[in-house]
């Protein structure tokens, strides 16, 4: 595992549709806030890890190089990663292994996205990620591909749409008190979600996280540095990652095996043998409401097809037995 690593500072911008701030400025705002929280300056940082969406989203070629100075990478080693929707998580993992390996003592990790720049809609940029012979002629977009997966998940396990909608309600209510949130809504109901516009059945507008601009940053440090820097370092006990095939037709749409493989890697590193008993809180990736449930099952916190029951029974609420996305997640923030 290498050296022990901790998070000693964090920063976040507001998440809104922005018209003035550039991606570079968003990265700077988050980085500065994280450094201030850690009581450090950019001169204390040894390297910078950047996570950001495809260049086409901002209309900026070589996006990593463009963001580098705004993210604090001037005259420092910089690396940019992009692994689709998991980029925010993988960027932090990248920061971890740069410190754990012994290469650096302090690393600034910055994740940024500015989707509102793409005209007429970011879905246009996504068309280029599909196979140019077997998929692109169908003009796919992520909405209807996720709709296929959601439909498969519901069909395989007999899941009611209302039970999935409860996730959107929970997260948007949780986000109502979040100072950085875009879509917090304290009074939203399941009926509101079920009555919202159908985008690609069974996906409806309130099942989906919004197009958003924003950035987050964390400062990660080796154990000896962390103990000198922070009274309460947040220790990284385990990390895991796994990439499934880019060909959707080759995936098991009912169950995210890639999440299970990543989870088992992290659990093994942390010495966790009974996740449901040992994990107290969870923040799964939730670009769609069903994906939170999908991922909870992949994380081995519930059996296959059982996470919707937990949502229905209040287990995932802030005051439940296993709070899930108490911040509001992507659906609310």
Brief overview:
With 333 residues, this protein is α/β, with parallel strands linked by helices. It has 14 helices and eight strands.
Overview of this structure, please?
- The chain has 333 residues and is of the alpha/beta class.
- The longest helix is centred in the N-terminal third of the chain and has 16 residues, at 23-38.
- It has a domain at 5-120 and 211-236: Thiolase/Chalcone synthase (Peroxisomal Thiolase, Chain A, domain 1, 3-Layer(aba) Sandwich), CATH 3.40.47.10.
- A hairpin with a 2-residue loop joins strand 5 and strand 6.
- It has 14 helices and 8 strands.
- Helix 7 (161-174) packs across helix 12 (289-298).
- The strands form 2 sheets. The chain has a 6-stranded mixed β-sheet with strand order 3-2-4-7-1-8. A two-stranded antiparallel ribbon has the order 5-6.
């Amino acid at each position: 595992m290498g050296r022990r690593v901790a998070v000693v500072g964090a920063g976040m911008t507001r998440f809104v549709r922005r018209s003035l701030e550039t991606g570079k400025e968003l990265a700077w705002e988050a980085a500065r806030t994280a450094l201030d929280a850690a009581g450090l300056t950019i001169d204390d940082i040894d390297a910078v890890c950047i996570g950001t969406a495809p260049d086409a989203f901002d209309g900026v070629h070589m996006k990593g190089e463009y963001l580098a100075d705004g993210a604090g990478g001037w005259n420092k080693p910089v690396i940019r990663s992009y692994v689709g929707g998991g980029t925010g998580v993988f960027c932090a993992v990248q920061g971890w292994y740069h410190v754990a390996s012994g290469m650096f003592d302090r690393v600034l990790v910055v994740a940024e996205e500015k989707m509102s720049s793409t005209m007429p809609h970011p879905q246009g940029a996504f068309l280029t990620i599909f196979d140019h012979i077997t998929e692109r002629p169908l003009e796919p977009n992520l909405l209807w591909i996720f709709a296929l997966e959601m439909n498969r998940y519901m069909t395989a396990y007999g899941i009611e749409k209302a039970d999935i909608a409860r996730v959107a309600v929970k997260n948007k209510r949780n986000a109502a008190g979040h100072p950085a949130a875009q879509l917090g809504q304290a009074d939203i109901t399941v009926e509101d979600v079920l009555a919202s516009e159908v985008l690609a059945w069974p996906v409806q507008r309130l099942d989906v996280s919004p197009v958003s601009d924003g950035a987050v940053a964390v400062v990660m440090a080796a154990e000896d540095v962390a103990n000198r820097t922070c009274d309460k370092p947040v220790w990284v006990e385990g990390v895991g990652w796994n990439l499934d095939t880019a060909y959707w037709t080759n995936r098991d749409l009912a169950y995210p095996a890639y999440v299970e493989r990543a989870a088992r890697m992290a659990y093994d590193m942390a010495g966790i043998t009974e996740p449901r008993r040992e994990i107290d809180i969870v923040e799964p990736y939730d670009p769609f409401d069903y994906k939170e449930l999908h991922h909870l099952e992949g994380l081995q916190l519930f059996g296959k097809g059982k996470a919707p029951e937990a949502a229905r029974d209040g287990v995932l609420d802030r005051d439940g037995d296993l709070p899930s996305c108490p911040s509001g997640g992507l659906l609310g923030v």
